[in-house]
Specification:
heterodimer, A: mainly beta, five-stranded antiparallel beta sheet, 11 strands, globular, B: globular
Chain lengths: 114, 111
């Protein structure tokens, strides 16, 4: 059973545009929602993360929007650049300290055209 | 300077062979993880370890085993490989409330 559903599977955006990737979760006990970025031949790397007590978190061109009542969260990439072309994974976890485990979404392959 | 190093990076083998994938980390992380990545399925947790002598099954542990030889080393074994274990395998490590640091993966093909 997939506990974190991610869409779209792939996304093509023009340079300068806004990229939006959506995730929905089922387990209301999740309390930490990170986004990972993965380039070809590399492992995923943490991009940005949010906890459910805030509705939005922004770091540079990357913003997470969080809707607790709808059990949804999304990643917005403003002014998308060709260097942003990568696979993006949302994730969710619960527990604290050593008990924390990540449940990943299925991934979105983003292509930003020059 | 990579936190987490995986070897080999690529491996092609035949059905029925025993395979070991190795992972080492240099930052003193106490927690280590093995994931499998398949297209359209994201990353799924195979096994994880919170310390030496602590081993826990993840979502998809059947057909796999692990060994935590030391705090810095965590290996994944396929005792008798089968074609549907063809995938990209990632090791990760962390401590405290830090994010997980991933290695660059091992691409495994089983013919």
């Amino acid at each position: 059973q997939q506990q974190v559903k991610q869409s779209p599977q792939s996304l093509i955006v023009q340079k300068g545009g806004i990229s939006i990737i959506n995730c929905a979760y089922e387990n209301t006990a999740f309390d930490y929602f990170p986004w990972y970025q993965q380039f070809p031949g590399k492992g995923p790397a943490l991009l940005i993360a949010i906890r459910p007590d805030v509705s939005e978190k922004k770091e540079g061109r990357f913003t997470i929007s969080f809707n607790k009542s709808a059990k949804q969260f999304s990643l917005h990439i403003m002014d998308s650049q060709p260097g942003d072309s990568a696979t993006y994974f949302c994730a969710a976890s619960l527990g604290s300290g050593s008990a924390r485990q990540l449940t990943f979404g299925s991934g979105t392959q983003l292509t930003v055209l020059p | 300077d990579a936190d987490v190093t995986q070897t080999p990076r690529n491996r092609i083998t035949k059905t029925g062979k025993r395979i070991m994938l190795e992972c080492s980390q240099t930052k003193g992380h106490d927690r280590m993880y093995w994931y499998r990545q398949d297209p359209g399925l994201g990353l799924r947790l195979i096994y994880y370890s919170f310390d030496v002598k602590d081993i826990n099954k993840g979502e998809i542990s059947d057909g796999y085993s692990v060994s935590r030889q030391a705090q810095a080393k965590f290996s994944l074994s396929l005792e008798s490989a089968i074609p549907n274990q063809t995938a990209l395998y990632f090791c990760a490590a962390t401590r405290g409330n830090q994010p997980q640091h991933f290695g660059d993966g091992t691409r495994l093909s089983i013919l």
